[in-house]
Amino acid sequence: MSFLRSSSDRRKSASKATRSTVRGGGKSKIVVNQRLQLNPDNNHQPESYEDLKSNHFGPWIFRELEKHLPSNMLNASRDKKVKYMSGILDEYLSPAERFRGQKQKEFRQKIISNYPPLHKELYTMHPTTFFVPEFLRAINDNTEDSFRRIMSEPAPGIFAFEMLQPRFCELLISEFDNFERWVHDQKVRVMRPNTMNHYGAVLDDFGFQTMLAKLMEDFICPLSKVFYAETGGANLDSHHGFIVEYGNNRDVDLGLHVDDSEVTLNVCLGTKFSGGDLFFRGMRCEKHVNTESRSEEIFDYSHFPGQAVLHHGRHRHGARATISGHRVNLLLWCRSSVYREIRKYQKGFCSWCGECKREKEERMHTLIDNTKLVSHYVIFILHAHALLSRKMT
Ligand SMILES: O=C(O)CCC(=O)C(=O)O
Ligand SMILES: [Fe+2]
């Protein structure tokens, strides 16, 4: 999903949303539809859209867009505003995206209206029962110092901290098991979390969308604004939340990959297992995703239940084989449509990609070497010239 799509699409949609051409008497004139105001009303307090079940647009986009509504819409009912804004936002989607979105919505609605949850209390955010007190305190204090007090940064850009209460982890695994049993008994076909995990489930598909949106908005965004501001973390606006599962008759390991996310939260839920270490191999842009790692980029990490790891989605990583037991993790891929749009227009070296940095350094060295060579040559010529002119006099 991307909020603003390719440049030509965007231009087309934007002009559709703001003005239309009326032909009459051989002349054409522009009629302003007033669907949005160019300048936001910053004094207006937008509604909360946390619970919105939009497949494409996060609550953040609706909140920002609300400030651009025409004045007669600003105080309309929330439902009316949602309908109005969805109508405008949908113009930014391709027919294929709209179709996929509609299918996904129907699929989710079907599951949600039939699946009986086992632990209803998990489906709405209860910070004090979900999180350990130290994590909550750090988020409430909301400063880089308070975050760093509870986090370690064992390798650049990778943060580890205790996050979830043991009881919450237990209940989430039990809810996931219950869902798996239901899927099996009802012979429902479900989507797996991604192309690489063949087990596990998408939490957003069976009722967790609102809770996970809140998890991202209130508990991950404060961290990502500080630690990943330059790489999309400043404006995360959608998520993909899922469970992965390894062990006997399940996935064994996960090969080296990058996530479809700007920021990834990976929390180990349990249970008892050996092996399953995470391994990291440095950040790479799209162009350099398959290049070699440098020794300083190689980093392995042992995860334990309740422990969270936060990393950039383009930080290459994987999970080693789970040798024994059952390993279950909660993954939240957090995305920024604004950042993705900006990236499309960025050319040349990428400041965070290890290979771009290496290429840049190499070019700098070549440039310096060439400059040195030229200056040596110039000095040599000057000397020779001086010598010759001395001899001639
Ligand atoms: O198994 C893990 O902990 C890693 C999972 C992961 O990287 C992913 O699903 O994207
Ligand atoms: Fe991953």
TrEMBL record:
<keyword id="KW-0479">Metal-binding</keyword>
<keyword id="KW-0223">Dioxygenase</keyword>
<keyword id="KW-0408">Iron</keyword>
<dbReference type="GO" id="GO:0051213">
    <property type="term" value="F:dioxygenase activity"/>
</dbReference>
<dbReference type="GO" id="GO:0005506">
    <property type="term" value="F:iron ion binding"/>
</dbReference>
<dbReference type="GO" id="GO:0031418">
    <property type="term" value="F:L-ascorbic acid binding"/>
</dbReference>
<feature type="domain" description="Fe2OG dioxygenase">
    <location>
        <begin position="237"/>
        <end position="336"/>
    </location>
</feature>
<dbReference type="InterPro" id="IPR005123">
    <property type="entry name" value="Oxoglu/Fe-dep_dioxygenase_dom"/>
</dbReference>
<dbReference type="GO" id="GO:0016705">
    <property type="term" value="F:oxidoreductase activity, acting on paired donors, with incorporation or reduction of molecular oxygen"/>
</dbReference>
<protein>
    <recommendedName>
        <fullName>Fe2OG dioxygenase domain-containing protein</fullName>
    </recommendedName>
</protein>
<dbReference type="Pfam" id="PF25238">
    <property type="entry name" value="OGFOD2-like"/>
</dbReference>
<feature type="region of interest" description="Disordered">
    <location>
        <begin position="1"/>
        <end position="30"/>
    </location>
</feature>
<keyword id="KW-0560">Oxidoreductase</keyword>
<keyword id="KW-0847">Vitamin C</keyword>
<dbReference type="InterPro" id="IPR006620">
    <property type="entry name" value="Pro_4_hyd_alph"/>
</dbReference>
